[in-house]
Each structure stands twice: as structure tokens, then as C-alpha cells.
Design goal:
This protein has 349 residues and is α/β, with parallel strands linked by helices. It is 39% helix and 15% strand. The protein folds into two domains: 209 residues, Isopropylmalate Dehydrogenase, CATH 3.40.718.10; 136 residues, 3-Layer(aba) Sandwich (Isopropylmalate Dehydrogenase), CATH 3.40.718.10. The chain is built from 13 helices and twelve strands. Strand 8, helix 10 and strand 9 form a beta-alpha-beta unit. Helix 9 crosses helix 10. The structure holds 1,4-dihydronicotinamide adenine dinucleotide and the ligand NCC(=O)COP(=O)(O)O. The site of 1,4-dihydronicotinamide adenine dinucleotide has 17 residues, from helix 6. Its cofactor is Zn(2+); Mg(2+); Co(2+). One of its GO terms (molecular function) is cobalt ion binding. It catalyses: 4-(phosphooxy)-L-threonine + NAD(+) = 3-amino-2-oxopropyl phosphate + CO2 + NADH.
Amino acid sequence: MTNGRRRALALTMGDPAGIGPDLALAAWTNRAALELPPFLIIADPAMLAERAERLGLNVALAVTSPEDAAVKFDTALPVLPVTLAKPAIPGTPDPANANTIIEAIRLGVELTTGDRTRAVVTNPIAKSVLYASGFGFPGHTEYLAHLAGEAAGHVVTPVMLLAGPELRVAPVTIHIPLGQVPQALSTRAIVETGRIMARDLVSRFGLNAPRLAVSGLNPHAGEDGALGSEDGDIIAPAVAELRAMGIGAFGPLPADTMFHAEARESYDAALCMYHDQALIPAKTLGFHDSVNVTLGLPFIRTSPDHGTAFSLAGQGVARPDSLIAAIRLAARMADTEIETKTPQASSRI
Ligand SMILES: NC(=O)C1=CN([C@@H]2O[C@H](COP(=O)(O)OP(=O)(O)OC[C@H]3O[C@@H](n4cnc5c(N)ncnc54)[C@H](O)[C@@H]3O)[C@@H](O)[C@H]2O)C=CC1
Ligand SMILES: NCC(=O)COP(=O)(O)O
């Protein structure tokens, strides 16, 4: 492919009982007004046709190859077909469809690593539905790293970055129970997460010398050890190590005071210790315009920041904004990669 910009993005269907199909259909319907880059959806065409009818959307579907998707995108929604085991009922997830949901993700990665699509954009999956069918990964993030590691022949460490206009933030530990967080934290894990963030914020977001604000774990970042020892024993040495590597990291900062507007001026991204410490400020500041990005992979992956919202599926009330932001960001990251090595100033997303 000579012109990478004419390749389509690979969009996975997510859980077909959730809002993913609704959002994809809405995004395609508004493609011209929103000037969206072309995307190909990996989904069951019968499910898409049924959902479009239910939503009253007039969407032409074109089963097509990834190579033809960008050309077809103006007149029809390009579909790479997969087949569901059972018809999808909006709002009622069915573990019988888990294998197809997972296969759509795997195909998106295969197409993108094979240079047939530009990036992977994933629609939400319900983790518990996939666990019920034996899926052995906590979420997309870990599954994508597994697929990348298999292809590369070495372990790939993923970093979950939530990127919005007001805040970029990544947790060191991701999908683990809160009670396991202190044991899972190590200086090495924090340094590795910070290193990947700093590297990818340059190569994929076009930032120059990103500043990383590192949170503490305990109230008041441990209050000099009186409220917990991890801040001083594990996190502070990680910050020192990152700085010794030439990365503009600082902290550990009390997590409760590092997200207000003036504090956010002092950094390009925040590095937090666990899922909710990072995702609560991200979703509070920008639920509809933040994007979940997996850093550390050899390909680009974005996703809306929200989940399957089963109660909204098939009703035409789910907002497609975060998926649209994810589609746009994936294309922008792919452009930045093409123009690479010439870091440019970027707005905060
Ligand atoms: N990337 C992914 O695949 C993600 C998947 N999930 C999964 O989603 C499932 C449901 O998780 P919840 O915690 O309920 O989060 P959720 O994001 O699905 O819903 C949280 C609240 O936000 C509303 N909401 C979500 N998306 C919306 C949209 N586009 N427009 C308007 N309102 C919207 C929902 O109606 C609900 O009130 C879980 O199984 C979880 O594992 C959650 C986050 C990300
Ligand atoms: N809360 C964020 C989330 O669950 C996203 O997970 P993933 O499926 O993108 O790994």
C-alpha cells in the first residue's frame, strides 16, 4: 500500500448486545459531516442490518476486502464478515457469541499488523460475558498485548492510556482487584510504564519531551511514611529512575490534588497506580470525548472510554462521541507515525 492514509481503520463490533453496533452505524451515517477517516467494521452483516433497521437508520452495507474498504466507505459501510453463533438481542449478552467477539478482535490485529488496515479501533466488550466462555484475559488491553507478544516472540507490556482534551492518564496496574494493588506495584513496573508512556507520547502523539506527573498510592502520598510506605519505598525511587533516564517525571504527588485545572497545566500526562485512580478523573473530566489507547503495542489501538451500556443498546440514545473521538485519534496517531521523527505540537488528546 503506497498511500497509508487511504487504508481503512479496522473497527471491531464489540459485544453485539451492547451499544457498539449502534455507535458504528451512527458514526458511519454522519461520516461526511464529521469528515471521518474511512473504517471497516468486523461484524456479522445480518446483525448490523437488523440493528440499523431497529434504529431507523438507512445504512447500506458492503461486504468487502480491507483493500477496497476506503473506496467503498463514501457510499456504504464496509464490512468484513464474521458470523455470530446466535442472533444478538440488544441488552441481552450471550456467551454463545463470545468466540465471534474475540475473533473480530484477533482479525483486527491481524489486518493491522499485516498492513492491510491502519489501526485497530475496538468497540466495548463485557468482560464477564467473555470470562463466562473461558476468555483468559482481563480485557482487550491484555489480550492485544498477548497477540502482539505471540507475533514478536517476546513479552509485550501494554499501557492503558485514557486520553481526552483535559487530561491524559495511565494506571500502572490495570484490571486487578484493589486489594492486590500494593503487592503488584514495583519500582520496575512504574519505571516500565513511565518509559513506554514517554516514548509513545513522542512517537504517537507528537509530543516533545513529555512531562509525567506520578501519583502516590496512599493518602497524601504517604504523609512521610505515616500513612503508608509504598510512596517512599517504591514510587519515589521509580520517579528518580525515570528522571535519570532523561524523562521529565515528578512526584509522587497526592492523588487527590493532582487533577485540578491549575495542577494539570504542569504535566502532559499523569501516571497513576491503579485503575480507578486514573479512570475516575479521566471519565469525570471527559466521559464523552476521552479515548482509551493502548500504548506499548507494535500497532495502534484506540477504543471509546465507556463500556457496553447494555441498557441503551438498540434504542438510539447512546452517544457516539467517544467512538468518534477514538476513530479520529487512531487516524491522527497513524498520521503522526507516518510523519514520524518530526514531532509536532499537539492538542491534548
Ligand atoms: N473497552 C471496553 O471494552 C470496555 C468495556 N467495559 C465493560 O462494559 C460493561 C459495562 O460496564 P459499566 O461499568 O456499566 O460501564 P458503561 O460505560 O457501559 O456504562 C456506564 C454508564 O454510562 C452510560 N453510558 C455508557 N456509554 C454511553 C454512551 N455512549 N452514551 C450515553 N451513555 C453512556 C451507561 O448507560 C451507564 O449509565 C462491563 O462489562 C465492562 O467490562 C467497560 C469499559 C470499557
Ligand atoms: N475501564 C477500562 C476498560 O475496562 C477498558 O479495558 P480494555 O478492554 O480496553 O482492556
